[in-house]
Every structure is written in C-alpha cells, then in structure tokens.
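[job 0412] stage=fold_complex status=start
inputs:
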Amino acid sequence: MASKETLHILRDPRTLYLALVMPVLMLFLFGYGVSFDLDHVPVAFADLDRSEASRALVRSVTGSRELVSAGEAHPADADQLFRRGLATALLVVPEDYGEKVARKERIRLQLLVDGSDVTVANQVLSKADALVRAETKRLSGAALAGARAPLEAKIWTRYNPAGRSALFMVPGLAAFILAITAVLLTALTVAGEWERGSMEQLFASPVGRLEIVLGKLAPYLVLGMLELLLVVAFGTAVFDVPVRGSLGLFLLVGFFFLLGMLGQGLLISVVTKNQLVATQAGALSSLLPSMLLSGMVFPIENMPWPLQLLSRVVPARYLVHALRGVLLKGNGLSVLWPDLLAVGIFAVLIVAVSTARFERRLA
Amino acid sequence: MTDALRDGRAGGDPAIEAHELTRRFGSFTAVDRVSFEVERGEIFGYLGANGAGKSTTIRMLTGLLSPTSGTGRVAGHDLSRDPKAVKSAIGYMSQKFSLYLDLPVRENLAFFGGAYGLAGKALEARADEVLELCDLRGLGRSTTGDLPGGLRQRLALACAILHRPGVVFLDEPTAGVDPVARRTFWRVIRELARAGTTVFVTTHYLDEAEYCGRIGLMVDGKLVALDTPAGLKRTYVPEEVLVARGRELRRAAAALAARPGVRDVVPFGAGLHLRVEPGSLSPREAERLFAEAGATEVSVEPSEPSLEDVFLEVVGGGRA
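[job 0412] stage=fold_complex status=done
writing structure:
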C-alpha cells in the first residue's frame, strides 16, 4: 500500500511541489521579505530653530537605520506629505530649541505620524521615542542625572488617531478577499466546465471567444463588486472605518482590480483545464501575493528590494494603496491615478491573454 | 418539409467535401489525407476502431480543430477560411455529453438556441418543435441530470438541430444507450434525413451502421473503405458465411480451416463464422466435420455477411 502511494506521489509532480517547494518558498518569503521590522522609514523634519543643537537632534533621529531623512518640510505640509506617501512622519523642532537646550529647560518636540499604516506608525513612534531619549541623555550628560527628561516628544497621529488596526486592516482585507474569491470562483467554474465537456459544445457554436470570456466573467464581476461594497459597509458600520474620499473612485479601482483577478482565474483554468489543479494554482497565486506582498499586513517599505520589485506586479498592492488612500486619507484621482492605471493595465492584459489562450485551446 | 436547407444554396453541391484532410499532433498523424464527399440528405456513417481518427475528422469538419493540411467545405463554406460560417450552418453533438446537468431541459434548449441566434417567441416555438421531433414531449421542466441516458442523448440531438442546420455531425450519439432508445434515436435521424438534413454520424454499433446510406471506414488515420453497406459486404466478404453454433467447436476449427474452400474460421460470439467460397461447403457437411472432430450439439446455418464481418476483415486484417 505504502509503496503504491509513494509511486503515486512521485508520478504527480504537483504533490511534490506542494510538499517541498512551497515550504521553502514561504520560509524565504517570511524570513527575508516580510517582516515587522522597521527599515528606512522616511521621516521629514521641520527645523524651525536651525541651531547646532537642533541640527544635531535631526541628525540623530534621521541617521538611524530605521528612520531616514525625507528632507525638510513645513509643518503645514504634513497632510500633503502623508497623502502622497512621501514621508511617514514629520519631526517639528521648535524655534527656541537651541536656547532651551543651553538653559537646560524642558523642550517640547512635535512628531506627526501618518497613522494609516498602523504597523509602521507604531514602530516609528517607539523608535522615535527611543532616539529622543538617547539624545536627551547625550545632552544632559551627568548634569541632569535623575531630572526629568528635557525632551518630550508629543506625538500626533494623523488619519488614525486611535491607532486602530481595523482601519488599517479593512482595506487590506477587502483586497485579499476579493483576490481570492475572484480567482477561485472562475477557476472552479470554468475549469469544471472544461472537465465536464460543455465547453466543446459552446465552441462548436458560432459564439465568439471574447463573447464567451466576457459572458462568463460578467456575473462574477457583479458578485465581486457587491462583495467589495459589503466589506466596506461592514467596516464602516461595525469598525467605524471612515470613508473620507470618493466612493466612485474606490469602486472604479475595485472594478478593474476584480476584472484582473477574474481574468487571472480564467487564465488558470484555461491553462490547467482541471478543477483540482485550478483551485490549487488559483489559491496559491492569489492568496500568497495578496497577503504577503500587497502591503496588507507587512509594510512594503520594509521588504528587501527584490520583493519590493515583485510587489509591483501584484495588483493587490495597488488596490490596498488606493483603498487606504480613499477611505482613510480622502485621496483623489490626482494622487491615486498610478494605482488606477496599474490595475487597469493588468486587467486589460490578462483578459487579452486568457482570451487568446482560449482560442488556442482546441485549434 | 425543407426546413433543413438553411443556407439557400442552390444546386447539387455536396453537403460535405473533404480533400486530403490531414491532422498531425506533433509526430503523430491522427488523420492522413482523408478525402470524401457526402451528398445532401445522406446519412453518412463513419466507422473505425477507437483512436482511428473519427473524432478528429469530425472536429476538423465542424471547425473545432484546424487541419494541418488539406481543405474542406461544409454546407458551402470553406473550413479554413470561414469556420464561423460553418459553425452557424451545422449542428454538432459531441461524444461526451456536454449539456448542463443542473439545468432543466427548457433552459438548456434556451441557452444553446441563444448561442445560435434564436430568441423570444421563435426560440420557444422551435424548442417545442424539437422536443416533439425528438420524442421528448412533456419533459421541458425536468432537470437534465435526472434524465436517463437515452433521453439525454436525444436532448443533445434536439439542441443540435434547434437552428435548423443543413448538416448535423453526431459523434457516437448512442454510446451507452439501451437498444430500444437507440431505435428511437435512429428513427429521429432518419426523419431528419428524409426532410433533407445531411447526417454525418460515427458509431461503434454496426447494426446501426446498416441504416446508413454509405459508410466510410477509418483505420489508423486513413480512410480505407467507402461504400454502401451492401457494397462493402460484397467487396470485403465475398464469400458465403456459415454460422456454427454448438459445444466444443474450437476443436474442429483447425480441421475446418484446412479444408479446401474454407477461407477463414473466425470466432464470433459463442460460435464460429466460417467464410467459405460460394458452393464449396454446405452446412450439413460442415456439421458433419464438426461432429467428427468431437463437437457436440452443432448446428450450422448460412448467413448474410454482416458489417461486423466487414469490420473485422478491414480493421482486424481478416486472418484470425
């Protein structure tokens, strides 16, 4: 019995792949790529004092491995900076910083943090805190031993003052759910139909390939849009996720994303023609990238650059970015047009490829 | 009733023309330079062993597969240049049942009718018509999956003729269907042909093949024989056939085969078929020979050569 099973396993490369390649892949991804660790987070600074002391502070804060300088900015620009993703935090040094340091008085620093990505925000906060304490120690030296810290960072988190992870997760989850169901649904139904043989009858009729493809995808498109609305409605109602931007833009990006995912599922079923394999391939190709490389849970900025590059071809990344932008920051088309373009291109490309593969199937 | 001739093409052009039709899959030649013509209103049978290339030929003629070389015209349209027009003008029933099992009969008809451009009242009326034609009255609401095999196949045929095609291709339409249902099926086919529809059918059931006007036989991708059933029998089984039944016949097989005038001794069901030159051996003589060799309860009777004999001769090489 056991030897027969072994023969089966050896003969079926898919089982081997699942058992051996997948774990390695995941170890690699999780170990190297996706991490909760902070790395190169852009922090802008507004040095209103411009004294030697303030410059020293800025240097120590932005000179660490975890936080890098995103250049100078004005406190009023914080909104723009965060919306465009140019900086995740803004350190404001008051104009009397140098004086107060000399007089050894307490100083209030202001750190504005973009709270829409909770993971990063929390880490920035704690890191900044640690750096400020270190600077304090350096400044105080032995003189103020035991006294209260002269530097106090007042932290102000935009977009997600309570730092609630639901606000952060819901957009990511929406993308994740859509990706999986869209790919799986089409993979199952179309591949299933192929297995059953009803595709052949359809091909014998004068109905064109594109007609068949679009006809098959349309109901799932509607279903997927409903799903998207449901997730957002639920998020808004139960988790108080705000909808600060245009719902129309949100739906538009969602629509193209869906189309792309459905096309992906279709392509998988056209290529595999087997329900079982199609579901496996579908789940893997949509689940892993959507969860690990889309910025849903693990910040993209923290990944090593090969994975960051890889994440550029993951449509879910653009949806997550766009959803967060629209829901939490109220971003409009002017900021999000790259995301819309990206999902649009992906959708068109993949539908074209799967239609073309459809043709080649029998002829 | 001329509802079959949809194209409006005048004249006596053949309904199906194949000229040196070839299909290769890599190094394997599935169909090798097959040429034939099928007249309008003919019931054309296509026989051959499994893997001989019958389904591949049909797939090429229905536009599902493009030929590697060669040309074909079906219902007046060129296969390579105008596959879509071919598809609109023909009906196709695939070997594997390919209607949707979870839908009721009516919806399957509606779907496939729609694929061919039928809609609304016209679709409904025609659906009623084909249900009547194919003896499926009253089953409109039944779930397709619940129908027994024979009825399902008739439904598939019904879907294939919804748009009144001039030519229908049936790929093993009665596979796995009980004899009574098969009879009914062929009754429908014959009615279609009478009305002017050309029917191209492949089958393994040689008794059905007798219904065909002409039969083509495929062996290893080549069309090796093409004639009426009677013609085929005359060509390939020119001898008389004696059917021997009884016990322990095999013992006598060698002795009988050695007898001059006996061309061949072929096992056939529980008995033997003796192929003898006309007049060389009478049934009574054969019975005696069998008895001498130790067979018992022997009866030998003259018989008409059947298509099965033809098939075995052509495909099996004839020599047992």
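[job 0412] summary: DSSP finds 14 helices and five strands in chain A.
[job 0412] exit 0
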